[in-house]
Amino acid sequence: MSEALERALSDRNFAEVITQVRTSLAHDPSAAMADPTVRDWIGRRFRHLFLDEAQADPIAVRNSQRRFPLSLADRRDDREKVAQRMFRMIEPAEIHEQMPEAQPVSFDNTTLVLCPGLLTGYMPGLALQQELPRVVERFGVKILSADSHPGRSCAANAADISAALEQGVGNAPDKDATLRTAADDPPVPGDVVLMGYSKGGPDISAFLLERPDLAPRVRAIISWAGAHGGSYLADDVYKDIEFVPDDQLLDRLIADTGGPIRRFLPLMPVKPMARRLDEYDIKGAFRSLTTQHRAQFNAANADTLDALRIPTIYFTGSTSAQEVTYFNLQSELEMAEQDPYNDMQLTQAQATPPTTNAVHSAMFHATHWDMSYDPWPWYETAGSRELKEPFARYAAISAILLLLSELGLMN
Fold this sequence. Notes:
The chain has 411 residues and is an alpha/beta fold. It is 41% helix and 10% strand. The protein contains 16 helices and eight strands. The chain has helices at residues 3-10, 14-27, 29-34, 36-55, 58-63, 78-86, 92-95, 132-139, 154-167, 200-210, 232-241, 246-255, 282-287, 291-307, 329-338, 393-406; strands spanning 110-115, 142-145, 170-171, 179-180, 191-197, 218-224, 312-318, 358-365. Strands 2-1-5-6-7-8 form a six-stranded parallel β-sheet. The protein has a two-stranded antiparallel sheet with strand order 3-4. The relative contact order is 0.16. The mean pLDDT is 90.
């Protein structure tokens, strides 16, 4: 990286650092994202913006308090509380590091397109459904959630992301997540930032391979606990259903209350799906998330994805056996043998994109579900008290948007 950037960092001239990094990304995004100095800055800057946002959010601060009676002797300030609660790892020197407030350029010309995960629609709301209307109102940013099918392969769901980009099809960022189909003649996005949660991460990779002609419109990729390396849980589910006849598969999943599918949903909902019934491919969905399939995909396609030169920022979660549901406990203990910092469904390695230009900006103290979903309704918790972890999702999505704009990736 240029001597000017090194000098600005040494002098703590952060306004100049912001300008230098933005300029380098505009000139050559691949070179910028590969530079260790830029990578380190993007992570530090995000964590600072997140702490600014969380510290200003009374709910996030309250959820960061130690439990009674330890709360009575808690002398930490609000910034320390949210830092030590919401991040799994953060250097003490970072918590009170002095930086300027966010310097967003604008949000006018780029749409954030959220690509949701497996079984979307069966969870309590869509991913980040409560947070999206708030950030739209605050920033005026354009947001669309792709109408990704809840139960088919990553390759098949590439068509849903294409429909979002080419036709504006998807869920609006309102409190009801209103679905807009092509018949509604919705506005069509121009340039986009793609944000993939869980299976949405590899869905994006499949989309980019299927539609490289649309890649120039993708300004950046945000991987939000993206399942790029697959999941050991998907291995278990696929092994369990691989040889079940298709006409018996739904009954098997509903009846298998103690089996692997329980680790993806507390209760398998039995509710009518009025649309896209003929597109379900449950076996294909889980097969595309097996560790073997994802390893083969990444080995074959990482260079091609790298060549698209799309800046990628990724975020991971981390939890522990004391923080998961009783029906996730055994799998959590098994995963902890592979990685003590897993998020209940993914190890850190599995949540890492296969491209060299991906920058890891935070490991959050949150389960895989908590990073995107509200607490489960009591009647869908199967008796667990561990489906209400209060992660600061609004602070996180706000900080991501501020960072993207400051980097020049949304204006």
